[in-house]
Amino acid sequence: MISLSSNSPPKRIIAGGRKLIFYDYDEPTDNHLADDQACLAVLYNPIFYTFITAHPKCIKIWDATTGALQSVFRDLSHKEITAICLDTRKRKLFVGDSRGRMFSINIKNGAKMKKFKKGDTKVKGGSKDKEDISSFCYFISGDDDSKQQTCNLLSSSWDGRVRFFDDSDSNEEGLQKQP
Known about the structure:
Shape: globular
CATH superfamily of the domain at 3-123: YVTN repeat-like/Quinoprotein amine dehydrogenase
Strand content: over 45%
Helix content: under 10%
CATH topology of the domain at 3-123: Methylamine Dehydrogenase, Chain H
Structural class: mainly beta
CATH architecture of the domain at 3-123: 7 Propeller
Radius of gyration: 17 Å
Largest sheet: 5 strands, mixed
Number of helices: 0
Low-confidence stretches: none
């Protein structure tokens, strides 16, 4: 299991596993590589041997061996991206934004696959400023022997809500499960 983090200053990516590895970097001068806004999250995809970085306005895919930029997915959301998570097969990327919206994209081409409805958002004293998705967790539940497995997505947001979604079906809209 690898854990990744970025910090600034100094500009550094920290990879943790059995030991910590520090990668110091400078901002690229190429416009297609540079980003005005900070990196929010870094994920490692061992299936495609890539790093995925989330920025407020885009998702970038980097080759883990060469460090070359492979893809940039822009305009995925009208609001700022706040959280990302991979599915267990490492082929879908779940994206959350600052308005509490969630969707999944194909990690190879950036095509949107599914939107997740956030349900009733009218919370007493609630504020749209606190709807940011802060984290995701993707897991499969059910017996390994049976075909009764379900793919689940948990999301948490700054409004204090935890939402539970079923990602098992291929509908274009994932509905929130009731606890």
